[in-house]
From TrEMBL:
Keywords: Receptor, Signal
Species name: Caballeronia choica
UniProt entry tagged with the keyword Signal: yes
Domain Leucine-binding protein: 34-372
Keyword tRNA-binding: no
Protein name: Extracellular ligand-binding receptor
Similarity comment: family membership: Belongs to the leucine-binding protein family.
Signal peptide: 1-27
InterPro entries registered for this protein in UniProt: Leu-bd, Peripla_BP_I
Lineage: superkingdom: Bacteria
SUPFAM superfamilies: Periplasmic binding protein-like I
Length: 381
C-alpha cells in the first residue's frame, strides 16, 4: 500500500491510538486499523504447528493490506495480534481474555480442541467470531454458541475414517487404543473406538497417557501380548513419534493409526525408521489436492523460508473469510462481522467454505497418509 508522508504519519497515529481505543472506532483518519487475533501454541511441543498457523494468517494479512481493503467506503489496514496459549487450556482462557481486552474483531484459533473449547465461552460472551483452523472435537461447535466456526472436519468423521481403513484395508481384527487425555486426543480415540466396535474390530485395551508423555514402554510392554493388529493413538506428533519408535523397538509389528495431530512432516524425524508404520489422517484436503495449493505453497515458502506443516492454508483462508464478512456487512465492528458469518460462501485455497447452523463446514474431507522413506505420501481422500 502506498502512502504520502502525511498518510504515513496518520497511519502511525492510528496505530498508536489502537492501544487505548477500539481500532474500528477511529474517525478522521485515512486508514482504520482493525485488529485480528490469533491464538496457538508458540512455545512447547506443538510450537511448530502454532507458528505454521500464525504464518498463514500473517501472509493473508500482508497480502490484503498490500492490495488495499475498503469496507463501507473507508480504507482499512489489518493488524495481526498473535498470542501464545502454549497448548494449555488455562493459558488459553487468559489469552482469550487478553485478545478481547485488546479489542480484536475476530480470532483465528485456537489450534487445539482442548484450548478452543474453554476459550470459546469468552469469545462468545464478547460477541467475537472464533474460527479454528484445526479444532476437531465435535463439542467445540455443539455448545450453543453463535461465535464458533471451524474450517476442518470433526473427529466424528476423522475417527471413523481411520477405523474404516483399519477394517477394510488393513483387515484388522483387534486394536489397542492409547490417547493423551486431552480433549483432542481422547475425543478422537473415542470416536475411533465407537466406529471400530461397529465394524467388528475388537478393542483389546484403551490406555491413557498425557500430552507430555514421551516414554510409552510401560503401556506398550503391557499391550504387546494382546495380539492387536493395529495401535490407535490420539495425540500430537511430539508424543506420537516416540510411541511409534518405541513400538518398533519392542518388536510390535502393528501399524500405528493416528489423527492430524500426528500427521506432520516432523513426526518422521521423531519416529525414525518406524515412521513407515504410521498411517494418519488430516481433517481436510491435502495441499496437493487444493486447486490453488501449489501457488500458495510457493508464496508461503518465499515469505517464511520454511515448509508448510499442516494448517497454514486454513488460517490463511480464515483471515480472508473475516475480511469477506467485513465487506459484506459494510462494517469492521465485531457484532456486524458475526452477523455476516452464517451466510459465508468464500472460495479460497482450501476450496469453497460454507457453514451449517453450528459453524461446521457443509462439505469436508478426510485425507489419509503413510510415510515412505521418511516422507508423507497420500493414500486416499
Amino acid at each position: 500500500m502506498r502512502f504520502s508522508l502525511n498518510g504515513r504519519v496518520q497511519f502511525t497515529i492510528a496505530a498508536a491510538l489502537c492501544v487505548t481505543l477500539p481500532c474500528a472506532a477511529l474517525a478522521g483518519q485515512d486508514d482504520i486499523v482493525v485488529k485480528i487475533g490469533h491464538a496457538a501454541p508458540l512455545t512447547g511441543g506443538s510450537a511448530h504447528l502454532g507458528k505454521d498457523d500464525e504464518n498463514g494468517a500473517r501472509l493473508a494479512i500482508e497480502e490484503i493490506n498490500a492490495a488495499g481493503l475498503t469496507v463501507g467506503g473507508k480504507r482499512v489496514t489489518l493488524q495481526l495480534v498473535s498470542e501464545d496459549d502454549a497448548g494449555d487450556p488455562r493459558q488459553a482462557t487468559q489469552v482469550a481474555q487478553k485478545l478481547v481486552d485488546d479489542k480484536v474483531v475476530a480470532v483465528i484459533g485456537h489450534l487445539n480442541s482442548g484450548n478452543s473449547i474453554p476459550a470459546s465461552r469468552i469469545y462468545n460472551d464478547a460477541n467475537i467470531v472464533e474460527i479454528s483452523p484445526s479444532a476437531t472435537n465435535p463439542i467445540y461447535t455443539q455448545q450453543g454458541f453463535k461465535t464458533t466456526y471451524r474450517l476442518v472436519a470433526t473427529d466424528a468423521q476423522q475417527g471413523p475414517a481411520l477405523a474404516d481403513y483399519a477394517s477394510k484395508v488393513l483387515k484388522a481384527k483387534a486394536v489397542a487404543i492409547i490417547d493423551d487425555s486431552t480433549a483432542y486426543g481422547q475425543g478422537l480415540a473415542n470416536e475411533f473406538e465407537k466406529r471400530a466396535k461397529a465394524v467388528g474390530i475388537s478393542v483389546v485395551s484403551h490406555d491413557a497417557a498425557t500430552d507430555k508423555s514421551i516414554d510409552f514402554r510401560g503401556i506398550l510392554t503391557k499391550i504387546k501380548g494382546q495380539r492387536q493388529d493395529v495401535i490407535m493413538y490420539g495425540g500430537m506428533d511430539a508424543t506420537g513419534g516416540p510411541l511409534a519408535k518405541q513400538a518398533a523397538q519392542l518388536a510390535i509389528p502393528a501399524k500405528v493409526l493416528a489423527g492430524d495431530g500426528v500427521c506432520t512432516p516432523k513426526v518422521a524425524g521423531l519416529a525414525g525408521s518406524a515412521s513407515k508404520n504410521i498411517i494418519c489422517s488430516i481433517a481436510g484436503l491435502p495441499l496437493e489436492k487444493m486447486e490453488r495449493g501449489k501457488d500458495f505453497e510457493k508464496r508461503y515458502v518465499a515469505r517464511f523460508n520454511q515448509r508448510i506443516e499442516v494448517y497454514a492454508p486454513f488460517t490463511y483462508d480464515a483471515v480472508y473469510i473475516i475480511a469477506d464478512a467485513m465487506k459484506r456487512s459494510g462494517s469492521v465492528q465485531s457484532k456486524d462481522i458475526l452477523r455476516a458469518m452464517p451466510s459465508t460462501s468464500y472460495t479460497g485455497i482450501i476450496g469453497t467454505t460454507q457453514f451449517d447452523a453450528h459453524g461446521d463446514l457443509k462439505q469436508s474431507a478426510i485425507s489419509l497418509y503413510e510415510y515412505v522413506d521418511g516422507k508423507q505420501s497420500l493414500l486416499d481422500v
